Task: structure prediction
Amino acid sequence: MTKPLPIKLGHEPIVAAALELRGIGAVPLHTVLPGVFRSAFAGEELATTPVQPNEVMVPLGQSGPKLRLAWRGYDILVGDDLISMNIGLKYPGWTQYRADALVAIAAVIDQGALSSLFRYGIKYVNFFEKKTPLKDILNWSLQLGSNLISEENLQLRVERQVGELRSIVAVVTEAIVRKGGSADRAGCILDIDTVCLVPNVDIQEFRASLGERLDAVRLLNKQVFFDLITEQQLATLEPTYA
Result:
C-alpha cells in the first residue's frame, strides 16, 4: 500500500524552484517574450534586465538565458530556446505556482512565440539544516567498497527513468545557503529535477494537456522527495494530510 503524501508542510524546505521549457519559435524566445507578456498581461508590472555571460550556471551542451523578466514575484529567465520560471524569496505553494505557470505558458503559445517543444520539467531545491546526523535526515544507504558512507562530505547525482518522466536527484551533504540577505546557513541540499522529453509533441496538444502534465511531474517529484527523507525529518516539517 502506497503511503499517503502530505498536502501541505508547516515548515517548507524549498529554497529554490524552477519550471523550465525548452523549445523554439520563429525567432529566439528572448527577443519576443517581453512583448508577449506586456500584451497578455497589460497593466501588470514587468521589469526586464539582461543576463550577463556566466551569471547563471548552465549544463554542458545547453544554451543559457539572455534576459530576465520580473513578473508576479517570479524571476523568469529567457534564452534562445529557454523559458525558466523561478520562484522569488518564498515558495508560493503548488496551487499558485501552477496557476501562474499555466497562464504564462498559454500566453507564450497563443501569441505564437513557441511553436515547437522538446523538453519541460520542474526542479525543486530543498535545504535541511544539519541539526541532527545525516542518517536522521535522508533515507538512504551508500557504500563504496567496504566503506559505508554516512557523514562524509559528498556530492551525489542519480538519474532514473519512471515511465515517460526522468527523475534526476542530486544530494550535497555540505552546503551553505544564503537567501534574501539572511545569514548563511549550513546544511544538506536535496535537489530533485523531474523532466519529460517531448521532441514530437504537437504544441496545441501540449497546451491543452499542460495542467495534467505539470501535475504528473509535480506528483513524481513529491513521491521521490517523501521517499528520500526519514520519518523523523518529516515530522519536523509539520505535514498536513487530506
Remarks:
- The first strand starts at residue 8 and ends at 9.
- Helices lie at 29-40, 94-110, 203-208, 210-228, 231-236.
